[in-house]
Predict the 3D structure of the following.
Amino acid sequence: MLKINKIHHIAIICSDYEVSKHFYTKILGFEILAETYRSERDSYKLDLALNGNYSIELFSFPNPPSRVSRPEACGLRHLAFEVDDIQKTRHYLVENNLNPEPLRTDEFTNKRFTFIADPDNLPIEFYEA
């Protein structure tokens, strides 16, 4: 059987690089590890870490096609981040005009969660620890 150690990173293609860079670094708090402009592709690649762990590659490309997100489309459904205090997290999201959904409770774990959308409408879940 194949031995996989962990998820290495998540790659996201954005439509507006500066808006998404701000969202992931200033709003969600990811740390910039490296930022590379690739002139041959007219594209940026931003390597981001969460709590010191390499997590996200944020890419820009000229005129990327829109992502089908809702209703539930086949493919990646959402990103989920664990948080300690879902009420505090939701309050922060409201303060930053990110329009979080009302809190829901996972019927299997009884943990609460909420969703927002990133600047390109990628669903992002915040799930209480």
Strands lie at 10-14, 31-38, 43-50, 53-60, 79-83, 104-105, 112-117, 123-128. The first strand starts at residue 10 and ends at 14.
